[in-house]
Specification:
This is Triosephosphate isomerase. Pathway: Carbohydrate biosynthesis; gluconeogenesis; Carbohydrate degradation; glycolysis; D-glyceraldehyde 3-phosphate from glycerone phosphate: step 1/1. Its main location: cytoplasm. InterPro entries: Aldolase_TIM, TIM_sf, Triosephosphate_isomerase. The chain is an alpha/beta fold and 250 residues long. The protein has one domain (2-240): TIM Barrel (Alpha-Beta Barrel), CATH 3.20.20. Helix content is 44%, strand content 13%. It has helices at 11-25, 41-51, 78-83, 94-100, 104-116, 129-133, 137-148, 154-157, 179-193, 211-215, 232-249, and strands at 2-4, 36-38, 58-61, 88-91, 120-125, 160-164, 199-202, 222-225. An 8-stranded parallel beta barrel has the order 1-2-3-4-5-6-7-8, surrounded by 4 helices. The two termini are 18 Å apart.
Length: 250
């Protein structure tokens, strides 16, 4: 269960959030749940300094370049992200694809770079509404996933998370997906990647009301949450929901 803050939170806000989160987690039962936070680059080192007090919380970076160093103005490398505290590298979010020219080829290069340095690669896949309406959702997301993960060994795939985030379901204008709409894509991802990857996550207008139903979908191993987890109370509530789901399943 994780959250990306996107381009939100100053250092002071990031510090306050993390202090409160670590305090509230205390000895909270998180059986079967791995919390993660993906702050903006500016806050990553600050969040690490506080989150180290609760090793259950791991951190990520929202993007990273495929080269280890070089003349890439404005970019951050995987080694730099790891040095600042990241253990997860988020790759291929639809906003990166739409606004910054991310392609299947660049996601493949970035996944390889993350794995080369021992990070977990969090690959985001998802289709626009017109693809869904044409009945091509499954083919579209499999093309994204297979292209980015081409040539990886089974050992490497165990360090990959796939987050299915349909573009029509994310952001302020997103429409929450129904379980029926998600069963087909997750069945396809499970059939193709099964237990070969570390896990399959769902993200897209996740909130406390729909989280229990989303977690019950076959193939969903966890949730990747946006604004519903940007306040500490919201993130804690979602962690509790995930823990309760795991205890019911066991």
């Amino acid at each position: 269960m994780g959250t990306s803050w996107k381009m939100n939170k100053t250092l002071a806000q990031a510090r306050d959030y993390t202090v409160r989160l670590v305090k509230e987690l205390g000895d909270r039962d998180l059986t079967g749940v791995q919390p993660f936070i993906i702050p903006p680059f500016t806050a990553l080192a600050t969040v690490r300094e506080i989150a180290v007090d609760d090793p259950r919380v791991i951190l990520g970076a929202q993007n990273a370049h495929w080269d280890d160093a070089g003349a890439w103005t404005g970019e951050i490398s995987v080694p730099q992200a790891l040095d600042a505290g990241a253990r997860i590298i988020e790759i291929g979010h639809s906003e990166r694809r739409q606004h910054f020219g991310e392609t299947i080829e660049t996601t493949r290069l970035k996944v390889a770079a993350a794995l080369r340095h021992g990070a977990l690669a969090l690959l985001c896949v998802g289709e626009p509404a017109e693809v869904r309406d044409a009945g091509r959702s499954t083919a579209y997301i499999l093309e994204q996933a297979e292209g980015a993960l081409a040539g990886l060994s089974d050992e490497q795939l165990r360090s990959v998370l796939i987050a299915y985030e349909p573009i029509w379901a994310i952001g302020e204008a997103g429409r929450p997906a129904t379980p029926e709409e998600l069963r087909g894509p997750f069945a396809a991802l499970r059939e193709r990647f099964g237990d070969r990857v570390r896990g399959l996550l769902y993200g897209g207008s996740v909130n406390q009301d729909n989280a229990p139903d989303l977690l019950r979908i076959d193939g969903v191993d966890g949730l990747f949450v946006g604004r519903a987890a940007w306040e500490v109370e919201g993130f804690l509530a979602l962690l509790d929901i995930a823990t309760a789901h795991n205890s019911t399943d066991s």
